[in-house]
Specification:
elongated, 6 strands, OB fold (Dihydrolipoamide Acetyltransferase, E2P), alpha+beta, 5-stranded mixed β-barrel
């Protein structure tokens, strides 16, 4: 069957749009190097306040008390999706609000109490370590 010019153009346009829809999510939110300082990890003792298991990343909120006793609520996204964390053995009830952790994050370049999670220690055991490193 021979396709006319209009049909070929429609088919090609559909192919291009389909590829764009498939590829766009992969690049849409991967600004880790632009948003976070991968050269200055910060380690803090924290108390989990909430955990959000939703795509594209699991997000932890936690309180950190400084030397003067002031509490700041931090938030950090994990590098993996919920599915990827599940493959690493994580479950939704692995950490709960009130749990004490030691969190190491790559902090926000904007200076806000946000970061990209690098490592989580719970009960003296490393339970999460991201495969992230500073650019060379």
């Amino acid at each position: 069957m021979k396709m006319g010019l209009a049909a070929r153009c429609s088919w090609l346009a559909g192919l291009v749009m389909g590829m764009a829809m498939i590829c766009a999510p992969a690049f849409a939110h991967h600004g880790s190097r632009a948003s976070y300082d991968l050269n200055k990890p910060v380690t803090m003792t924290a108390t989990i306040t909430s955990i959000s298991w939703q795509n594209p990343h699991v997000f932890l909120s936690y309180d950190v008390k400084d030397d003067s006793g002031k509490v700041t609520n931090w938030g950090a996204e994990m590098a993996e999706t919920p599915h990827q964390l599940g493959l690493r053995g994580w479950t939704k009830d692995m950490l709960k609000p009130g749990d004490e952790i030691t969190a190491t994050v790559f902090p926000s370049k904007a200076g806000t109490p946000r970061g990209l999670m690098s490592k989580v220690v719970f009960h003296d055991k490393v339970i999460y370590e991201a495969n992230m490193r500073a650019p060379e």
